[in-house]
Amino acid sequence: MATALKLRFYGDPCLRKIAFKVASVGPAERILIRELMRAMYEFEGSGLAASQVGINEQIFVADAGEGPFAVINPEFIKKSSDETVMEEGCLSLPGIRINVKRPSFVRIRYLDEDGHKVERDLTGLLAKIFQHEADHLFGRMVIDYASKDEREKFQEKLARLEEISRVGIKVA
Ligand SMILES: [Zn+2]
What domains are defined for the chain? Predict the structure, then answer.
């Protein structure tokens, strides 16, 4: 069965909202998490934030190739001063890839889908995905990190996505 969630694209105001903290993790949150995971695989992404499907809650799912996990109310406890650049794509910015410089190491805290507090140290791809998805919950997107040249290169695509978001049609 195809997901019932509708992916939002650049230009959609819900991608610029600051998501609310989840007060308690219950059955509704677990249903949403399952749907987000299903949609993430259907859209072939390595992460999907609730904001990307128009739900203004601090929840995202991710899979860096080691199986899916859910993150609720993420917090950064530590970020390394050492930063690395990685080319990042985003389901809400199809056809666009941006070189994003981020801390290579982060210590993070969040609630898992059972409501348990988790603390983890992340490096490599997982650290990047986590920061990318957490950005979504605070209204930030990879395009915000783009250089002037990158922005110019993708100007037409961005304008098209804004138009799609404005009229509300679905791209295949
Ligand atoms: Zn994204």
Answer: 13-166 (3.90.45.10)
CA 59 to chain CA centroid, Å, is: 9
| Longest Cα–Cα distance in the chain | 46
Q: Which of 35, 133, 152, 163 is catalytic?
A: 133
Report pTM.
0.94
Spell out, as residue ranges, where the chain has pLDDT lower than 50: 172
Say if residues 137 and 166 touch (Cβ distance below 8 Å).
Answer: no
Q: How far is ligand 1, taken at its centre, from the CA of residue 91, in Å? A: 6
**Integer Cα distance of 163 and 4 in angstroms:** 22
* Residue 77 alpha carbon to ligand 1 centre in Å: 22
Catalytic residue list contains 133: yes
Spatial separation of the C-alpha atoms in residues 139 and 25, rounded to whole Å? 22
d(CA 14, CA 134): 15
